[in-house]
What does this fold into?
Amino acid sequence: MSNPADDFRCLLNATKIISSSLSLEEQLPALMDAVVQLTGAERAMLILRAQDGSFAVKAERSTRSGAERSGKKYSQSTIEKVFLTGEPLFILANDLHRQAPTESMEALQLRTVMCTPLASPAGIIGVIYAHSSTPVQAFDAHKKEIFVALSEHAAVALNNARLFEASVSDPMTGLHNHAYCLRRLKEEVERAQRYARPLSFLLFDVDDFKTINDTHGHRRGDEVIRAVAGALQSSVRNVDVAARYGGDELALILPETKDTDGTAALSGAKLLAERIRAKVAALDVPPVAQITVSVGVAALSQELGADELVDHADQALYASKRAGKNRVTVFGEI
It folds into this structure.
């Protein structure tokens, strides 16, 4: 028998968690847990529609081990209908005599499917979906209302997270933008100096980028920038900040970066810069013959502020340019 008080507590706890952060990664696990707890379903998913019209599972929870991990995971016809109508859809075992299961439900041998839209001012951005191969008991009108309310709260939180992500991201590369980079750098400088922790700042500049644009066109130049950005992003930890600093300049903020022996922040940052420089030199973006970057590395000291740290990395970067490009220079070794 459904317990309204338990359902309300589940809704309240989930909405508190998903509203407390602008990070999708932090919101989604709590949301999926709440859906499973509320519905008693075997599998719950948050599904978004990609630009090409395909569906992408952004997060999921399953109460079964390996039985559903291969093959198609959801009733696509149900999801398509919810995207089309913008209305919740509940197909429950005790309703099957009045509402025929869809073809994909039958293929997956599902007895229960629940799907609600995630609406935003721009339209339906996704759905919350849950299903079971067995009847879900006591999924009454009250539970439906709670499930819809959870979806509405989730839609607001997810839309806010998307707007925040757009405000701090560079649309072309997907890296953080210049303003976010400077804001985070100031925060990291204050934290590092307060607790006497290592912090390094790196600037990367694509060599001869104007020549690439003039020879191959700006669209190819954009591809080069994206490729270099990908090399940076694939080389860093979650705590690092990769940003498009401006034009063909990219930046890395490296908190707590040390050498392999646990000391020498500057040495560890230089090693990472060399790995990225080599990775960029191995990129293949036809018809560009070769892509290289010049890199400037600077480490924080108690006497420096964020602006001075950037200046030091900038001076090291231009020392790399003057020395022949495609190289890493550390401020202090100029």
